[in-house]
Here is the input.
Amino acid sequence: MEPHVNAQRLFDHATALKLHTGNLVNRSRLKKKCPSSTSEELQDCIQGTLSAWLATMPSKLDSELPSVLHCTIPENTEAVTPEEREELKVSVKIFLCEPDCSSIRNAVDMARSSLAVSQLDSVIIAPPPLLDGEIQTLIHLQPLWEELEGLVRSKKIAAIGTSDLDKSLLEQLYNWAQVKPSSNQVNLASCCVMPPDLTAFAKEFDIQLLTHNDSKELISAACFQEAVQESSKDLLVADWSLEWVLRYSIIVKSRGIIKSKGYIVHAKKCNSH
Here is the structure.
């Protein structure tokens, strides 16, 4: 059977997609063109990983089709060995596409199993994009933060951090939270210089200020669908949407070099019939 017919059958039957790009540090196909943004890199990774995975499918599929597509290329995936774990820092940023707290736990568990580590050293949360005219408040953050605090208590995460909070909101979260934020990421596109009030507050309460250049919406629904469609000829996936994206990096602490980095993506079919 034609590969693209197989691909369509798989996507027609499944209700969820779990995709792990594997280590991108030494993946040659990404070096051919320098992605201009993390969004472009992610789109490229989804398309490339799916294409390679679909190419491994047998020409004749079983009659029992999977309800969850576990899409990963084993030779691109490097687990962390127990001997080297002490030397490494595993950092993660979770981008939520929907305000579903269970996504945080699912993303953390999937990262832990994909990378073969029992605990992530740090997790930064990027809340789901707000509707036009909406402003981020503590009420938006509280359920997400409580989920992260539970994962710290169960030793699945060591430290938790926030993204794009101004001084006022960071202070509100800090005062309310039981497990305090250890870091806050600031987008340098929105402010070239760290706001002095944020810097002073972070210094006083020992919160690390980090910078990032991720767009507000890491990847749009249209770009995600385009990436999936382009992985196989004539693939129709209009009813699929992203739930969350997790980006990880594994750094050798003593040398400050990135040993491994990649994305884990979870998508679902919207109207499962």
Summary: The chain has a mean pLDDT of 90. The two ends are 25 Å apart (CA to CA).
